[in-house]
Amino acid sequence: LPIFYGKMKTFFQYLEIHINTKRLFEQKNKDRQLKLMPDNFKETISKAKKRKQKTSSQLKINL
After folding, report:
1. What secondary structure letter does DSSP report for 28?
2. What is the distance between the alpha carbons of residues 29 and 41, in angstroms, rounded to a whole number?
3. Alpha carbon distance 41, 24 (integer Å)
4. pTM of the model
5. Cα gap 9→17, rounded to integer Å
6. Residue 59: its pLDDT value, please?
7. pLDDT tens track, the chain, 63 positions
8. Using an 8 Å Cβ cutoff, are 44 and 34 in contact?
9. How many CA atoms lie within 13 A of 56 on its CB side?
10. Taking every pair of C-alpha atoms in the chain, what is the biggest distance, in angstroms?
11. According to the model, what pLDDT value does residue 29 have?
12. Which residues contact 50 (CB under 8 A, 6 or more apart)?
């Protein structure tokens, strides 16, 4: 049983590292895409996100 536990522990550590690196790469790609976008497009996206947040908060209140 202790051997099995040790293997599980290393597996979960590996999984955690894998997930963290994947997240890091996704963030880097997002940053790169934002750099390539024209500024007015960035503003449009941020406005859309704000609008989405407003509507989702309104939906929560209605529920």
Report:
1. H
2. 17
3. 24
4. 0.40
5. 12
6. 58
7. 567 777 888 888 888 988 889 998 888 888 887 777 677 666 777 777 777 666 666 656 554
8. no
9. 6
10. 59
11. 85
12. none
Tokens of 55: 């509507």
| Cα 33 from Cα 41, distance rounded (Å) | 11
Cα angle 9-10-11, degrees, rounded to a multiple of 5: 90
> What is the structure's pLDDT at 58?
62
What CA–CA distance (Å, rounded) separates 61 from 57? 6
∠ CA 30-35-37, nearest 5°, is 95
The encoded tokens of residue 48 equal 């859309």
Alpha-carbon radius of gyration of the chain: 20
